[in-house]
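Hi team,

As requested, here is the filled-out complex form for the fructose -6-phosphate run. I kept the field names the same as last time so the parser does not choke. Let me know if anything looks off before we queue the next batch.

— J.
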Amino acid sequence: MQIVLCDSADQVGHRAADIIEARLRRGPAVLGLATGGSPSSTYQELIRRHREEDLSFSQVTAFTLDEYAGLAKDHEQSYYSTIRRELVDHVDLPLEQLLTPQGDAADLMAEAARYDAAIAQAGGVDVQILGIGANGHIGFNEPTSSLTSRTRVKTLAGATRADNARYFEEGNVPRLCLTQGLGTIGDAKVAVLVAMGANKASAVQAMVEGPVSAFCPASVLQLHRTAVVILDPAAAGNLSMLDYYREAQKFNDQLGQGQRRGS
Ligand code: F6R
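And here is what came back:
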């Protein structure tokens, strides 16, 4: 795991955008996109680079990480609508190249299998952007999720529903979702997790320095060959080896190719 310590949320977005840009400049790419607050600064920076520095998404195929079950694509709070608002509608990514699990599919299990197959058919995800839940989830793989799981239907934890209640009218937060599995996420060539804020500090500590455990699903990234964890000071606040991470970061930055090395 490569730990990147930043001074601010904006800098977190910058560092994550650097990794994505480096991949996009090399040709057609498959991106995995998280929704939620964490990747906001990354998407803002990517939009800026698209507008001001000619960064093109025309050769990108994008797969979202997850979707609420029961919500149609055009529901305001579907992750399809959200990722359009947050990123896709502001860059030149053709809409037909934005793929999401269909939350209102009649057969959710079949839809999950179809989604995994579509990712494989696209050649797999090159760079997967992730946030982390305060309970250690990535995607919507809640604590106790199988570390080798594929895309499937999951029950949202009470804490996750409470965190996301701000987006819904009272009592309307969905209870089920479709989410890429931990095994699906692990297949991405590069995994980039961004986290900000003190409410993520204990999950970040468990992910980076705790045991690999289904109880902290994000800890599965310890098994990933190229996982980059980009943190603001508050999210890094509980880590015990900050001096080491800073030292390693210095050398990685000097090499200028941190994201392409093993970690
Ligand atoms: C969203 C997702 C979730 C979020 C996580 C953090 O697609 O997969 O894992 O990344 O719940 O959410 P925020 O960033 O809103 O704190």
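Two things worth flagging: Residues 9-24 form the longest helix (16 residues). The helical segments are 9-24, 40-53, 79-86, 108-121, 158-164, 182-186, 201-209, 242-255.

Thanks,
J.
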